[in-house]
Amino acid sequence: LAINSDGSRAATLATSEDEEPILFVWNTENGDQLNQIALSGDPRNLVFSQDSDRIAISFDDGHCSLFDLEKGRQIESTPVVSGMSTFALSSDDSALFVATQQGDIAVQSLLSLGHFRTGQNAIVSLDVLLGDTTKLLCGSRDGQITLWDVSDLEAPAATLEGIAGPLVTCCLSPDQNQF
Fold first, then answer.
1. Which residues contact residue 125 at a Cβ distance below 8 angstroms, ignoring those fewer than 6 apart?
2. Which end of the chain is more exposed for a tag (fewer CB within 10 A), N or C?
């Protein structure tokens, strides 16, 4: 289930009577179904673009696809990232940050942006805010949280401690002052 940034749309992945994957999108204010898009492959997760006109979906084989919700069709597909565990769409919709079970993050867009290593543990949660300041927050299974400045991916800007045990998810506030 995904809800867009202003709460006016909701989307979910389901299967048809023939067991084929389908993306459903609804208007949350009146309950009207806005779209139904047949998918191929095994979809895992989804996230709305900031303008809610597109939705990114990750698949079991490690690729992500971007769909135009108005036209009801796929407009982009990224290369496969082996061992993908989670992903996030940048707030300016120009890049996908794909985390792997090996602790890597692949940064993908129409022009492949790059790849960097976050640590030894699997990434379980990503939150991305791009704008005047570019930050990437990563949470791993061992409870480690790292904050990255996307303009300098050599080392994390900060490593946050205090979580005892596995981390399930994490996110940054819109002003990037709290997580």
1. 86, 137, 138, 139, 167, 168, 169, 170, 171
2. N
Q: Are strands 84-89 and 21-27 parallel, antiparallel or unpaired?
A: unpaired
Per residue in 93-122, is it b (16+ CB within 10 Å) or e — as a string?
bebbbbbbeebbbbbbeeeebeeeebbebb
- Coil/strand/helix, residue 83: coil
Separation between Cα atoms, residue 175 and residue 107, nearest integer Å: 22
Task: Name the pairing type of β-strands 96-100 and 84-89.
Answer: antiparallel
Helix (H, G, I), strand (E, B) or coil at 46: strand
Portion of the chain with pLDDT greater than 70, in percent = 69
Q: pLDDT category, 85, cuts 50, 70, 90?
A: confident
Q: CA 72 → CA 23, 54, 66, 176, distances in Å?
A: 10, 9, 11, 33
Say yes or no to pLDDT of 108 above 60.
yes
- Residue 124 scores a pLDDT above 50: no
Query: What is the Cα–Cα distance from 157 to 106, expressed in whole angstroms?
Result: 18
